[in-house]
Amino acid sequence: MYDFPSSSSSPRIPHIIHQTYKTEAIPMDFQKNVQSCMRFNPNWKYIFWTDETARQLIQAMYPDFLVVWDNYRNNINKADALRYFVLYEFGGIYADIDFECLRPLDPVTRKYAVIFPLDIFKHSEFRLKSPFLLNNAIMMSRPRHPFLKHMIDNQQASQALFEQLDVAGPCLVTTNFII
Description:
11% strand
């Protein structure tokens, strides 16, 4: 999913990389990936969110959502939800820490205002019986994009729709895109 392309040379997506993990102690297996994002994008702002800083953001900026946040049974639900809130508020690129940057990200930030890549086909058939599934492991957006607002507004209702691991994940993204 993406917006209409632009020929502007100015970035439409802010040069901010967001990543998250439970604590600041990133496992050794993922440190190379995190460092690659900073190495290929040295002039970008880098924000690393922990469980603690994520909850502080929700409490400060979305206090009405805090009850839902605190009642998520799995930490992955919080990590999934956080992505939408930080991209809505600040814009930029969210990438899971298992993603490795192989080149600078600047070119894609000029062309589109929001990007949610497709997940692999087998996941879409298995999860939603849909011909596609939007991925939330890496996504990009300008601040205040209406699609992100739509997803934020629908997160609470999603708890009744999906298996626990999908209440804030790829099924939420795809379902909100379809409706």
